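User: Sequence recovery, please. Input:
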């Protein structure tokens, strides 16, 4: 039987292992969530609407934040990417999510001093709270008020308040009235529709460019194939011409050689025939000479006397 202290030690060891495994799993989950948040925020930072849609479709939470509490909505609002802000809000992103400085996307959109007020209007229409304050107790209204020219504030009584406010403050001030809210909602709707049409036109233009490039590439491929085929045919034609020329040259040389041989044979036969006729003429001349009577030979005096005495005797 085991001692009680051994059982207690084993129990503590098993509990420590479980805690270690839980911490590792928690670290793994935190790392995974941080990586997913980084992917979504990077797509938002680059203005990659397609990348944002892919990230959201892959299961990344739209409110995934970094170590400073910033979300993709903060990034897109600060850079004025209206379509990405709309996509994130349609994916249930929190319009009033705050970072470590307790700043919302609406505050960042105002502080960015963007040329277009479309992002600000969209956030207001989607329910962004203008009364929220950050760690320094500054609200969106305060940020907008600070952007107003101090000289214009002094001249409110002369030129009127409406002409003196900054652009963000004008929008926020207009949104507080029912009529102004309707106007801003209409502007947002028309802006989103126009952006959708522009995106469709760009997609169509890109599709046409891709089709044109594909057609050019296909034409180049066909032209290259035709050129290769033509070059091959020309090469074959040249080879055939060279082969034909070689055959004709060989035939010409053979004909010349045969003509030379025939000429030599004819000459040799002619020379042989002429030689045999001369021999026959020489033989006939010799035979005629033999048949002619020979004149008597003249003998010397001594020999003639000996011949006469011999004949007498």
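Assistant: Recovered sequence (313 residues):
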């Amino acid at each position: 039987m085991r001692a009680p202290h051994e059982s207690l030690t084993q129990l503590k060891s098993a509990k420590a292992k479980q805690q270690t495994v839980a911490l590792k799993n928690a670290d793994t989950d935190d790392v995974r969530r941080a990586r997913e948040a980084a992917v979504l925020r990077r797509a938002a930072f680059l203005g990659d609407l397609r990348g944002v849609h892919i990230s959201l479709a892959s299961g990344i939470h739209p409110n995934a934040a970094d170590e400073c509490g910033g979300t993709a909505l903060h990034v897109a609002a600060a850079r004025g990417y209206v379509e990405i802000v709309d996509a994130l809000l349609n994916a249930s992103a929190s319009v009033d999510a705050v970072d470590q400085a307790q700043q919302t996307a609406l505050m960042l959109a105002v502080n960015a001093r963007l040329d277009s007020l479309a992002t600000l209007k969209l956030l207001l229409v989607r329910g962004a709270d203008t009364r929220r304050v950050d760690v320094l107790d500054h609200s969106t209204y305060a940020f907008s008020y600070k952007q107003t020219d101090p000289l214009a504030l002094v001249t409110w009584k002369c030129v009127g308040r409406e002409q003196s406010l900054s652009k963000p403050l004008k929008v926020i001030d207009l949104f507080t009235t029912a009529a102004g809210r309707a106007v801003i909602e209409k502007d947002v709707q028309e802006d989103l529709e126009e952006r959708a049409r522009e995106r469709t036109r760009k997609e169509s233009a890109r599709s046409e460019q891709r089709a044109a490039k594909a057609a050019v590439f296909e034409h180049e491929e066909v032209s290259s194939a035709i050129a290769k085929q033509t070059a091959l045919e020309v090469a074959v034609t040249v080879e055939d011409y060279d082969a034909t020329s070689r055959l004709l040259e060989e035939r010409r040389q053979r004909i010349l050689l045969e003509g030379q041989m025939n000429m030599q044979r004819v000459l040799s036969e002619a020379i042989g025939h002429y030689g045999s006729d001369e021999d026959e003429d020489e033989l006939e001349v010799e035979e005629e000479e033999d048949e002619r009577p020979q004149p008597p030979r003249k003998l010397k005096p001594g020999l003639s006397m000996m011949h006469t005495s011999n004949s007498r005797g």
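Residues 303-313 have pLDDT under 50 and may be disordered.
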